[in-house]
Specification:
about 170 residues; alpha/beta; Glucose Oxidase, domain 1; two-stranded parallel ribbon; globular
């Protein structure tokens, strides 16, 4: 999990984020069609999700990318969050955004990775490296993210749980 201090957006560290921010209703966006090095766009969010989304909800972006874990492609070919989607998340009050790749942006492009992180980290907690999204049967879950409470930490490993209750 990344926090605002990770990219100098603010001084907020992982231990300062309220625990209530880590338990949220989350919408699963099926973006498996976005290929290697592709961008996930606002248009990839189904109308059903857009119509039912409430400020404070979260998004899980399902790209099926976790299948490449342990390969060079996992890091270097990852699908990314577009600037358009990052701004949409901020405008709509997305609380957390979770992705399967190890980053929300191209780790080989410091300008892109910095820009997308800085947009989102104004008010969105970033969760990277998710797995097992394909096991979910619902597109709406309760997302529970349990980071380590590291004093002054710019991020943390986290145990992430999705409960199908909606």
């Amino acid at each position: 999990m990344d926090t605002p201090i990770h990219f100098n957006v603010s001084r907020q560290t992982i231990d300062e984020i309220p625990v209530t921010d880590f338990v949220r209703k989350a919408w699963v966006v099926d973006a498996r069609h976005v290929g290697s090095k592709g961008l996930v766009l606002v248009s990839d969010i189904p109308l059903e999700i857009k119509n039912n989304f409430v400020s404070g909800d979260s998004l899980i972006i399902w790209t099926d990318w976790s299948q490449y874990l342990g390969t060079q492609k996992y890091r270097d070919g990852l699908p990314r969050i577009s600037e358009e989607l990052a701004n949409w998340c901020l405008d709509k009050g997305v609380k957390m955004i979770g992705v399967e790749p190890p980053s929300i942006a191209d780790v080989n492009n410091i300008v892109e990775v910095t820009k997308i992180h800085q947009i989102l980290l104004k008010n969105v907690v970033i969760i990277e490296g998710l797995t097992n999204i394909e096991k979910l049967k619902s597109n709406c879950v309760e997302l529970i993210t349990l980071p380590l409470k590291i004093k002054g930490g710019d991020g943390s490993p986290a145990r992430v749980i999705a409960i199908e209750k909606y």
